[in-house]
Amino acid sequence: MHKHHSALGLASLHRPVQPVTLLRPHAAQRAARFFAEKFPGRSMYAVKANPSPDLLEILWDSGITHYDVASIAEVRLLARTLPDATLCFMHPVKAEEAIAEAYFIHGVRTFSLDTMEELEKIVRATKGATDLNLCVRIRVSSDHSKLSLASKFGAEPDEMKALLIATRQVADALGICFHVGSQAMTPAAYAEAMERVRAAIVGAAVTVDIVDVGGGFPSTYPGMEPPPLETYFEVIHKAFESLPISYSAELWCEPGRALCAEYASLLVRVEKRRGEELYINDGAYGALFDAAHIGWRFPVKLVRDDASDARDMAFSFYGPTCDDLDHMAGPFMLPADVAAGDYIEIGMLGAYGCAMRTGFNGFGSDLKVIVEDEPMASLYLAQEERRAASNVVKL
Ligand SMILES: Cc1ncc(COP(=O)(O)O)c(C=O)c1O
Question: Domain count of the chain?
């Protein structure tokens, strides 16, 4: 893969016609080491956030040995890319064929469930295996998070007793897992969820071997600046230690976004300006799904040889397809003189952005280069380091 120091080097030298993904391996490595060293338990990477094999290899080399996979395609990808990794199939609703293939062909032993039907399915598909780690997912609130995961999955607290007792009978190791929603803006989300876990354990009076606090660990975006990740770890550790099973149980987490948001940004070109609207060459069907559909704001920066001294003003973006839906409201703050032919770096797209792009309408590109400068925002750089880094922008 080609290397440049920064987006500017690439834009000045090559004037790319297609959008280019800028990869920062050092940022993914830093995030992985942070979790591997500081989370008070095991960190497994939620592959859905960004399944690119180059990222998977960086995470593996940086100490992430366990991976949360949610589809048989992700199981196969991991089995191919990191054959020694431990895979945990954490989607609570799986095809029976997928469970059987995961268990018998790829050696997966950890599965999640939130109903008796799913438990029966797992038992059937694995032919009554006795070496299963089964995690029962409990429904918890997403009130503190920007993206809810509270409706679709999770057993209600009053369903947990029967489910835990039944699962205990067939599991080698019994776990409880939850997800507080993505981009949890306060560690209180985990403290509150852990209270539900406590009530479930006490209510069922079973030994629980694994408590998996799921994903939800935040990254940093304009208008969404969370407290330091260490505070999340402290709250989780304290809540875990106070559970009646903590002396014998393992603590797990499944970060997606927090491990890869800083890994990638996107260099786009402005094809047209219409007042406060910029028509750019990537959009809702590309890496900007969240910007279009849930109004997520990403940091932006004009990439020009001679920096503009015009004041910043608010822009919205149109993507390249023919749909009105291909619109990102922003506001995205850029110098007022931005014009067709200019390049813009859009930051913090390593999580979900890159993973969700399509080739709809013939747009989108697979061009990737490695850049060496810092991501446009970071939860892993100290304040002084952020100030010193040329690429870090004010959120
Ligand atoms: C089961 C499970 N674990 C982990 C994650 C990763 O979440 P996040 O990216 O918020 O850390 C998800 C995201 O949807 C998930 O469904």
Answer: 2
